[in-house]
Amino acid sequence: xxxxxxxxxxxxxxxxxxxxxxxxxxxxxxxxxxxxxxxxxxxxxxxxxxxxxxxxxxxxxxxxxxxxxxxxxxxxxxxxxxxxxxxxxxxxxxxxxxxxxxxxxxxxxxxxxxxxxxxxxxxxxxxxxxxxxxxxxxxxxxxxxxxxxxxxxxxxxxxxxxxxxxxxxxxxxxxxxxxxxxxxxxxxxxxxxxxxxxxxxxxxxxxxxxxxxxxxxxxxxxxxxxxxxxxxxxxxxxxxxxxxxxxxxxxxxxxxxxxxxxxxxxxxxxxxxxxxxxxxxxxxxxxxxxxxxxxxxxxxxxxxxxxxxxxxxxxxxxxxxxxxxxxxxxxxxxxxxxxxxxxxxxxxxxxxxxxxxxxxxxxxxxxxxxxxxxxxxxxxxxxxxxxxxxxxxxxxxxxxxxxxxxxxxxxxxxxxxxxxxxxxxxxxxxx
Length: 431
Known about the structure:
Helix content: 25-40%
CATH superfamily of the largest domain: P-loop containing nucleotide triphosphate hydrolases
Distance between the termini: 29 Å
CATH topology of the largest domain: Rossmann fold
Radius of gyration: 22 Å
Number of domains: 2
Number of strands: 24
């Protein structure tokens, strides 16, 4: 098995994603077979990871995944790589209100060292107090090193390094603040990797900067072996069908790589199509999957794409939509300017991006539908759109939050057409 380490930070906004991308690119440029993973339910960062490592990036999520799912994902990543770099989520100790799910929880369970990325743009020697607190709060994790981020000068770097090394923590390098290493964002996170006009140039540049400023040899020496566990007869989510048409473009980009891998391992054929290019789903497909994404940004174009919409309407396949896909299966989407765009009309719901409201959180969902999945599932919800109007239909899921509090029904179902705002991640563990 490969070695592994975890890149974490004191908080979101510390620059750990760009540092992780830079490290992946630098290691790959140096000839290291490097793979990556992302802690938590994020579906955008992993696409950037894949651009940097030239390998698939899987999610590792202790709240939403069974232990055997995490083991299976790690085993897959480690089989063809020498090093697995795992990017954390939010701050090192941040997680769901109830249950495990923080980066620290994962580090402790896997026995992997943590490298802390610290935003140093507004501090000097005080960085030592911050690092010392993170190093000592939990005895079951090992903070093995620090990467100083957004340093302003050689003198600034020297002050920071002396302060951190005085408390016995290794400094692996210092990344300068560089204007062209800032990634653009929008309402659900970073602008998607395949929308970045010069992603290859960005990744190469990031790798060069990391090579010049971070001790890659030292970083690799800190890594520890991944847990040597064979998968415990992992039973991944079954595929929706044997031939699955999957919407894949800028409007439908949120799809967990581990699920695609598991479906293919189970013998399913995945047939991508682009609704934005006015492509209809494969007529031979016995299932159609519309993942989440940004349909609200392309509502006018989608509404005009009759080949795509009529392909949905005329299909006899099982049709399942998540979040953005659910919105497109509905009667219409109201854009940010208040304009209504007719969608497929297969589910009696109209959603609005004009009345923006953040809905965010893990979900435990139960269903009794034609979905070929276990009844109890773990999921994540993250959207700004709201339900403007909803007519009578059978609910798809009953849902609770991380504390077990009931939040009511989610989504709708009419026969073999169904969808909700939930992004399904894994089967719920049985206790």
